[in-house]
Automatic annotation (TrEMBL), chain A:
Belongs to the nucleoporin Nup85 family. Functions as a component of the nuclear pore complex (NPC). This is Nuclear pore complex protein Nup85. The gene is LOC108561248. Keywords: Membrane, mRNA transport, Nuclear pore complex, Nucleus, Protein transport, Translocation, Transport. Component of the nuclear pore complex (NPC). It is found in: Nucleus, Nuclear pore complex. InterPro entries: Nucleoporin_Nup85. The keyword Transcription does not apply.
Automatic annotation (TrEMBL), chain B:
Gene3D superfamilies: YVTN repeat-like/Quinoprotein amine dehydrogenase. It is found in: Lysosome; Nucleus envelope. WD repeats lie at residues 8-40. Keywords: Lysosome, Nucleus, Protein transport, Repeat, Transport, WD repeat. PROSITE patterns: WD_REPEATS_2 (PS50082), WD_REPEATS_REGION (PS50294). It comes from Nicrophorus vespilloides (Boreal carrion beetle). This is Nucleoporin seh1 isoform X1.
Length: 640, 391
């Protein structure tokens, strides 16, 4: 039993066919596939039957994400801005909440429109494969726009009494602007000669009539050379007196229906008395507006899509149709036009039927979840989703699953990852956990990116990730022999072992070369040196070193004594430290008190094991200590 | 829609394992030819072989990366009864204009096993640098590098005897105070009539690893086992590759006896079981967030499974090996450009087709039954030929 949505893709490789394949996930949407045949420890370890002449290849298979195309970058970033604003508004729940949601819907649509226009410009410039890709995008986003607009009318916009016909007409006019443009051209007076001599004159008039543009139709008719004849005047009269329903016009539905019927009967009687028969197009129009079946059959071929016909037909036959009644009418239109149902048609029908099927259909659109995520999020906040689900909990889960998926997709991209995180933030509870997994995996190729990752981690209180990233950057610097940089990162990572390891490296370098690297960094260590004992030692040693260099011997001596007393001195550093002590002991000026010298002597006694390799140093040190001690004792006896 | 890029792995025999580093930018492969190779992604989607060395004196079964916090570190295990830890280092003497050559050195050779070492995995990074191996004689070993800055010192911390020949192991990646360290081990033994998946937990009280569960519902040999990355759930998800694909939820239960013993008690539930492969399943791999499982089986397919919003698992995509090689002979001449893209034979603008899926280039990618699968189209199929001599 195979699921009908299960997709199969073939890897064109002989070895993959004969041996079989296995797959390992990489990052994001990529999987590595390789020829694989299970051989285990119980078989003999000998060259396999597959060794002959067929090379083993690894195939990196990735899901193609159209959203990653640079041309759609603006769509992705701008829609994120809208998404985030929407979430803020929803959290605050203002009283005019619904109004806001409708605003957001319009904003989303204008982003789609902007990218469509951008695509149209680009497609003219592009060639070959790229052109084809862009045309494909246009098809996708055109459908998205069309469906979104309808969903906005049906589910998001708050239409009084659910009388949608005006909105439906607007929707149709927006997506089929051909007649309107033509009419504008004809009326602009730029065409030469009488209008009716143009072969598209009547087509335009009827097209406008179908889209409910009664005013335009009247204007076009008035340009006809026979406009002053009785039947034209009569037709104009009828169109002018046609009642239209509007909630704010203070007319109830019943009253409107009454007027409508009057007008119908009146018009019908005029048609029946063959007042328009001399002008066949005028006659057709009059028959259309009273909803005569035969007339509609004549013009339906002028409609490009069933929903164009639907809006026109409803306008003249069911002007007070409610949004939830659309489904049945839509089906009638479809069978009337004999439309072969394409994907877009199915989605629109599902939307009109108010069917949960719409979610499935939208999911199958190939723009990687941009549409379904944003629309479902909006519908969820409009409390529409829960009407399709058995309980509220499920609708929340559904909304989360789309946002999660979309956030995941973006987070796997090398430059869109931050946008992805913003979506995952609004997807409780899995979102933060996913961020914890995805954020540390953002490939870092320079330090500024590392800083950005750390910033994002800290923003969300994920300090362990910030530390880990810093540690890895530190290791990288160390590999490249940039010790100072490594130490800076080690301090950020708060990894004391790592800091100690680096401090040791600094000290060892000093032992080997007599030069302390990165002194400017060490001078600014400050309280950061508390990260590890070894780092404290390094910091203090640097201070001593500096004093010594500046010839402040007295202070230097003090620092040295405290260094030795601290017992933080690493084994390998003792001899260096003591030979430096020697210079101070032998200084002309008396720098060390008897107490200090005793401490020094103690330390030497304790560390004899470290000194034994340098036996020429030991007697020197002892001599220095003894001489300094005698000087100190004499001095102290004299002056205290 | 998928696109594929081919990398000639240059192994002289079958590849047993492919592992990607933490970021998915480096790839390690191992093979029956006893070699391990490391590949780096340089620039956009271009993979270059940067190291290749003979790692063992037998088939290399598995290769795995340590967390980058420990540096560039790999572990391998082999038929030659050893496991090894490798570290990439940069030569001390940089040549003019470049920063010294990189090469991998063997930091340690773990020779405790007397039989083939069948799997090797690094533990979660918060435990420091730990390494678990399992072997054909049924012993699981946990090693540790006490000083993470010095990878040449490893100590064998624990030996756990499992009685049955072990084929695979997986660390539980979710580690908080609520979840002690946990390892799942699978056995490919086909004689004993017992459960083939064992769950071990480290007991802080006794400082030993204890077996806390044997999943008795799986009696058939197990070939691969993998914990899903944890998305903050209170339970663990385990994928098992055996005669079919099984997804098992392990939920810790807090009751008196588990509090007294200090050991976790698990509620074991098989939440999904897929026989789609129709025969033995060899490998199971989770994506980064643990939302999609990819399994490989004897039917020559990689199958992907995904959990939907009401927590039920569904098959989503199938990849299948197919012999119909694209005519790349003509293409080989211009291989120097390394990413030669074949031009599409058909040009047709996009439109919606009947089945509701997008049609591009006249190739319908969205397929209904699996009996008419489609090729990944040649134009998206980039053949990248790696030159061994260039390194």
């Amino acid at each position: 039993m195979e699921d009908e949505n299960l997709k199969t893709f073939l890897i064109p490789n002989d070895l993959c066919k004969s041996a079989g394949i296995a797959g390992t996930w990489m990052s994001g949407n990529k999987i590595g596939v390789f020829p694989y045949h299970n051989i285990n420890h119980s078989s003999k370890d000998a060259p396999s039957q597959y060794t002959k002449n067929v090379p083993s290849s690894v195939f990196h298979v990735k899901h193609e994400v159209v959203l990653f195309h640079p041309i759609l970058r603006r769509l992705v970033t701008e829609s994120m801005g809208i998404f985030l604003n929407l979430q803020t508004v929803v959290e605050n729940k203002p009283s005019d909440y619904k109004q806001h949601l409708q605003q957001f819907s319009v904003q989303y649509r204008s982003v789609i429109r902007a990218s469509l226009e951008n695509l149209r410009d680009e497609v003219l410039r592009a060639t070959g494969e790229e052109r084809e890709t862009l045309q494909n995008f246009i098809t996708i986003f055109y459908s998205v726009e069309c469906i979104w607009h309808l969903c906005e009318i049906l589910y998001i916009e708050n239409i009084p009494g659910h009388v949608v016909i005006k909105h439906l007409l607007e929707w149709v006019r927006f997506h089929f602007p051909k007649y309107e443009r033509k009419a504008a051209f004809l009326l602009s007076g730029e065409s030469i000669g009488s209008l009716e001599s143009r072969q598209d004159y009547w087509e335009t008039v009827i097209g406008c009539l179908l889209q409910g543009r009664v005013e335009v139709v009247r204007a076009l008719l008035s340009c006809h050379s026979a406009a002053n004849s009785t039947h034209f005047k009569l037709a104009d009269q009828i169109l002018k007196s046609m009642p239209t329903y509007g909630v704010y016009e203070g007319v109830s539905v019943q009253e409107f229906n009454l007027r409508w019927k009057h007008w119908l009967v009146d018009t019908q009687s005029k048609i029946d008395s063959k007042l328009f028969i001399s002008e066949k197009n005028l006659h057709l129009m009059m028959r259309l507006i009273v909803g005569e079946e035969m007339a509609w059959s004549e013009v339906q071929s002028q409609c490009e899509a069933w929903y164009e016909l639907l809006a026109a037909w409803l306008f003249y036959t069911e002007p007070t149709v409610k949004s939830f009644e659309l489904g049945a009418f839509a089906k009638r239109c479809i069978s009337r036009m004999g439309t072969r149902m394409h994907h877009l048609d199915r989605v629109l029908l599902a939307a009109m039927e108010g069917d949960v099927q719409i979610i499935k259909e939208i999911q199958h659109m190939t723009e990687n979840g941009w549409f379904v995520t944003h629309l479902m999020d909006l519908l969820y906040h409009c409390e529409q989703l829960e009407k399709w689900q058995t309980d509220k909990e499920d609708s929340l889960k559904l909304r989360h699953s789309f946002v999660f998926e979309y956030g995941n997709t973006l987070a796997g991209h090398k430059s869109l990852w931050q946008l992805g995180l913003n979506y995952l933030d609004h997807c409780f509870p899995d979102g933060l956990a996913a961020i914890e997994l995805l954020l540390p995996r953002v490939p870092i190729n320079d330090e500024s990116k590392a800083h950005r990752v750390i910033q994002e981690a800290q923003k969300r209180g994920l300090s362990h990730i910030a530390h880990s990233v810093a540690k890895i950057e530190g290791l990288k610097s160390l590999r490249n022999d940039r010790m100072g940089n490594a130490l800076v990162w080690a301090l950020r990572s708060q990894d004391s072992n790592f800091a100690s390891f680096l401090a040791d490296k600094f000290l060892k370098k000093y032992v080997d070369t007599g030069i302390l690297p990165n002194v400017d960094l060490l001078s600014y260590l400050g309280s950061c040196m508390m990260a590890s004992d070894r780092l404290i030692f390094l910091g203090k040693y640097y201070q001593f070193n500096k004093l010594h260099k500046d010839k402040s011997y007295r202070e230097a001596a003090k620092a040295l004594v405290s260094l030795i007393a601290s017992k933080f001195t690493p084994k390998f550093f003792w001899s260096t430290l003591l030979s430096e002590a020697l210079t101070l002991l032998e200084c002309d000026e008396l720098l060390l008190s008897s107490n200090d010298v005793f401490n020094l002597l103690n330390a030497v006694e304790e560390r004899l094991d470290c000194l034994c390799e340098l036996d020429e140093l030991e007697p020197l040190i002892r001599l220095g200590i003894a001489r300094n001690l005698s000087r100190a004792l004499t001095y102290e006896a004299q002056y205290t | 829609m998928f696109e594929a890029a081919e990398i000639n792995a240059e192994h002289k025999d079958l590849i047993h394992d492919v592992a990607y580093d933490f970021y998915g930018n480096r790839m390690a492969t191992c093979s029956s030819d006893q070699y391990v190779k490391v590949w780096d992604q340089i620039g956009n989607e271009k993979w270059t072989l940067t190291s290749s060395w003979k790692a063992h004196s037998g088939s290399v079964w598995k290769v795995t990366w340590a967390h980058p916090e420990f540096g560039q570190v790999l572990a391998t295990c082999s038929f030659d009864r050893t496991a090894a830890v490798w570290e990439e280092i940069i030569g001390e003497t940089p040549g003019p204009g470049e920063r010294g050559t990189r090469h991998w050195v063997r930091r340690t050779n773990l020779v405790d096993s007397r039989t083939s070492v069948t799997d090797v995995k690094f533990g979660p990074k918060c435990l420091g640098l730990q390494l678990a191996t399992c072997s054909a004689d049924g012993i699981i070993r946990i090693y540790e590098a006490p000083d993470v800055m010095n990878l040449s010192q490893w100590t064998l911390q624990h030996e756990i005897t499992c009685k049955l020949s072990c084929s695979c192991l997986s660390w539980n990646p979710s580690l908080t105070n609520n979840h002690p360290q946990m390892i799942a081990v699978g056995s490919d033994d086909n004689t004993a009539q017992t459960g083939k998946v064992f769950i071990f937990e480290y007991s802080e009280n006794s400082r030993r690893w204890m077996k806390i569960e044997t999943i008795i519902t799986i009696m058939e040999p197990v070939h691969d086992i993998s914990f899903a990355p944890n998305l903050g759930r209170s339970y663990h998800i385990l994928a098992v590759a055996t005669k079919d694909v099984k997804i098992i939820n392990l939920t810790p239960i807090k009751d008196n006896s588990s509090i007294q013993s200090g050991l976790t008690k698990l509620d074991v539930q098989t939440v999904a079981q897929f026989t789609d492969h129709t025969c033995t399943v060899w490998r199971a791999s989770w994506n980064v967030t643990g939302t999609v499982l990819a399994t490989s089986g004897d039917d020559g397919c990689v199958r992907m499974f995904k959990m939907n919003y009401i927590n039920s698992w569904k098959p989503v995509t199938v990849l299948k090996g197919d012999g119909a090689v694209i005519p790349n002979d003509a293409h080989r001449g211009s291989i120097a450009s390394s990413t030669g893209v074949l031009t599409p034979p058909i040009t047709q603008t996009a439109s919606y087709n009947d089945s509701g899926s997008m049609v591009r280039n006249g190739v319908n990618y969205t397929l209904k039954p699996t009996n008419c699968p489609q090729h990944i189209p040649p134009r998206l199929f980039k053949r990248i030929r790696q030159s061994f001599n260039s390194i």
